[in-house]
Every structure is written in C-alpha cells, then in structure tokens.
Amino acid sequence: MDIVKRFLEYTQFDTQSAEDSQTTPSTEKQWKFARFLRGQLEEIGLKDVTLDDCGYIYATLPSNTDKDAPTVGFISHYDTSPDCSGADIKPRIVENYDGGDIVLDAEAGIVTSPTKFPELKAHVGEDIIVTDGHTLLGADDKAGIAEIVQAMVYLIDHPEIEHGRIRVAFNPDEEIGLGAHKFDVEKFGCEWAYTMDGGDIGELEFENFNAASARLDVTGVSVHPGYAKDKMVNAIRVANEFIQMLPADEVPERTEGYEGFFHVVGTEGSVEHASVTYIIRDHDRERFEQRKRLFQKLADELNNKYGAGTATATIKDQYYNMREQIDPVMHVIDIAIKAMADAGVSPRVQAIRGGTDGAQLSFKGLPCPNIFAGGLNFHGPHEFLPIPNMEKAMQTVVNICRLVADFNE
Fold first, then answer.
1. C-alpha distances in angstroms, 85 versus 11, 135, 223, 386?
2. Could you confirm whether 79 is annotated as catalytic?
3. Are 150 and 4 in contact (CB under 8 A)?
4. Which of 168, 230, 329, 388 has its CB surrounded by the most CB atoms within 10 Å?
5. What number is the average pLDDT over the span 17-32?
6. Active site residue 174
C-alpha cells in the first residue's frame, strides 16, 4: 500500500474528540480506529505492539545495526477536531493543481480559492487531496500517522538502511488538549522523539505558547427591573465590562509571530450569574505570568466596584514553551534539519502559535519537537493536503532514523 492509499483509508474513520467527555479516549468511535491501527502495525511487522486501556498505541521497529544508537520515537494523534465534522469524509485528489479555484461542492457553492487561501499558490502543479466541502479532511493528524507507518514499512523493506531501535506511538484526544496527559513516557523508552503534527512542508517547531485557561464567574444581584436602581447588579453586564477591560489589540485576530493574547472562547449567563472563559497565550514566560496577573487584577477591580464576591477568577496552566527543554539538547533539532535537507526540503524553523503534545511531553522528560505533516487549513472544510508534502515528511522520518544510527553524543 502506498502512502496516499494509506492516508485515504485512515480518513474513513470518524475519530472526532469531544471536550465535554470524562473518558479517555473522549469518544467511543476513536477506539474503532485505534484497534484497526494496532492490527495494521502488527501486520506490517512491528514488534511489541500494544493498545492500552486509554487508547494509546505503542510499537517498536527493532534495531538492525550493531551501532550503539539512541532510541528515537515518532508520535502522532488520531483524533480530529471537534470544530468540524469528521464523519463520512469524501476526499478527492485534484491532479496537477492549476492555481485556480477548487470547487468542492458546485451545488452548494463551496469553493476553496487562492484568493482567500493564498497558501494554495505554493502548490501549483502538485496533486492535492481536498474535501467535498462538508467535513474536515483529517490530515491533522492522520497524515502524520500515514507518514510514520509508511516510513516504518520503507525501513523494513530496505534493510540496507541501518537504524537503531525506533518507537512509534499514536494517541487520542490531542485536539482537546489531553493527548499527552496519559502518555507513558517511561514505557515509550526513548531518549527523544518527534511529533509529526506540523503544517506545510519544511515546518520545524520547538517553541510554542505558554498556555493557561481562565474563567471569570460573576455573581449578580437580581431585583425587579422596575425597582432596580442602585440595587441590581446585572452579572451579564459586569461580565461584558470585564471583556472590555482587557487590552483590545491583544487578541488572536490582531496578533502574530511572538505576540501573545487573551482569547475569549465562551460566555453564558443571566442577571444572577454569568461566566466568561478565556485562553491566555504568550511565548515569553514572564509576559505569560503578567497576563495571568492582569486577569486576576481586573477581577479584583470588579470586586472593589461592585462588592466582594462579585467576580471570581480561576486560572489554570495548561502547558509551557518547550524551548526550555529543547535548548539543552539541540542535537535533536540539528538532526531534523539535516534529515529535511537530505529529503530536498528547506527547513523553516518557526514558533508555534499554539501547542502540541510535544510541549507537554517535553516537560514530562521526553524532548519532543514538532515536524511538518503537510496539511493546511486544519479544522475545517477547506483543509487540503499536497501529496508531495506527505511524501517528503515520510522521507524525513526515514532520514532521521538513518542519521540517529550514526549519532554520537
């Protein structure tokens, strides 16, 4: 099976995760793909294939060399985003893309246009996998899984390529921020690893946001509106006041690069009670801490204005910038850069305006930068995957395995 057929096969499994679930995986349908994938790994010849009680899959490609090579790992997640349906995906290959509009559904008028998605222009002349405009594609991160599995097949079929012990792992629930929570780093047994979960060709990421979730709960005072003067405290209005107190320009839609933000992701309420939920992000650790302090300070100001107990801020750290853990072991980046160059790929080292499982794993003792998987416009119906991107990512995995065999600390 070639890598394209493998990826297309994977897209036929609906593996959407769910944020309101209390189980791992968060959805029962993820188990179906996990069991299928476990069987496929056994079928291609990997060893020590296990699927644990939380849906984490681990497998080994044994060393074929006498060299004292480090054990290196490759990781991808198999859930897809709750933001868009992953059911009944109908992928289509656009051959030799001509640079124009791609009509996904003519009857519904759904079109992926380079005018709106200029990243398409970099892939003129390539074969591109697209959706039918009604679901996401699932390249995030089934492309990563296909690349890793195909790389293992390639190494098995080419024993002349020397490599050390290789570990692979596939996990659920990355899209809801829980992919690394129950990952068994000790069982994985690697000196370092790579997540194949980046975007366009050449991306290599070992910096990400420091991240926290934040919630403001507002307790109001309900009084008959006809007699409310100087008595009522409308929780909805207080919550809205809080939103306006945060810096107006420090939001996702007005920031880029290393600029952090406050992002309101949900509101609900009545006169008596309202809540506002946020995510707080910044690459710089001190600015991140300042943002959290500002959130609390503004809640305190509302209490001073409307009375103690009116506003309660709850802030929880989610993950940190993995660069803190990667800087002492920069050889893992040097190897990835060389592996890309050997595959004919120009590395593009950049900071992630988000996070990956690799960030959490790095702080659990497994340095784990992120490499491109090749897809673009994730989490929506305009997602697409240039086939050459996927092929180059697979070659990069093979090259890393080859280079690590010759690595000496």
1. 12, 5, 43, 21
2. yes
3. no
4. 168
5. 95
6. yes
Using DSSP's 3-state secondary structure scheme, residue 223 falls into coil
What whole-number distance in Å separates Cα of residue 206 and Cα of residue 333? 8
User: E-assigned strands of 208-310?
Assistant: 210-219, 261-269, 273-282
pTM: 0.86
Question: CA–CA separation, 169 vs 19, rounded Å?
Answer: 22
Q: Where are the beta strands (DSSP E) in 185-321?
A: 192-198, 203-207, 210-219, 261-269, 273-282, 311-319
Q: List, edge to edge, every strand of the sheet that includes 210-219.
A: 261-269, 273-282, 210-219, 311-319
Give the burial string for 232-245 (b: 16+ CB within 10 Å, else e): bbbbbebbbbbeee
Q: Which residue has the tokens 């180059």?
A: 392
Question: Per-residue pLDDT for 172 more than 90?
Answer: yes
Two tokens, residue 328: 């002492």
pLDDT tens digits, one per residue of 193-205: 999 999 999 999 9
> How do the residues of the chain divide into helix, strand and coil, expressed in percent and rounded to 5?
35, 25, 40
Q: Which of 14, 79, 147, 207 is catalytic?
A: 79
Q: Which of 194, 213, 219, 217 is nearest to 204 (CA)?
A: 194
Radius of gyration of the chain (CA): 23
Helix axes 235-245, 285-306, angle to 10 degrees: 140
Name the token pair of 81: 């985003």
- Of 328, 326, 340, the closest CA to residue 402 belongs to 340
At 277-323, the pLDDT tens digits run 999 999 999 999 999 999 999 999 999 999 999 999 999 998 899 99
Provide CB contacts within 8 A for 192, sequence distance 6+: 70, 72, 73, 329, 332, 366, 367, 368
Q: Which residues contact 13 (CB under 8 A, 6 or more apart)?
A: 29, 32, 33, 36
Per the residue annotation, which of 141, 174, 205, 282 is the catalytic one? 174
Measured CA to CA, the distance from residue 141 to residue 6 in angstroms comes to 13
